[in-house]
User: Which sequence fits this backbone?
């Protein structure tokens, strides 16, 4: 969710049925930290095109960073995730 009154955004997704993951994303070039069940994550994001937002993230204590590229469509979103285990593509529609 993008709120113009804050310097961060919330990025949430469902990893498995009823398993919702949520991260804070710095919008001002400063990483925001999020505590999760599997550790602490730091993330920062930026718009690279009018319809595409990139998020760079790192799990604290691990050397491999990752990236999500979110492309917003009129009826949904396409996501490309690049991490240490490979590249994955997802898509969804507005509900």
Assistant:
């Amino acid at each position: 969710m993008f709120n113009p009154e804050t310097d961060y955004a919330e990025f949430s997704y469902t990893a498995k049925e009823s398993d919702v993951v949520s991260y804070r994303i710095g919008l001002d070039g400063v990483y925001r930290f999020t505590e999760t069940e599997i550790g602490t994550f730091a993330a920062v994001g930026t718009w690279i095109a009018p319809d595409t937002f990139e998020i760079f993230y790192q799990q604290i204590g691990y050397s491999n960073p990752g990236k999500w590229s979110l492309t917003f469509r009129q009826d949904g979103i396409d996501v490309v995730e690049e991490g240490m285990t490979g590249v994955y593509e997802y898509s969804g529609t507005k509900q």
About this structure: The radius of gyration is 13 Å.
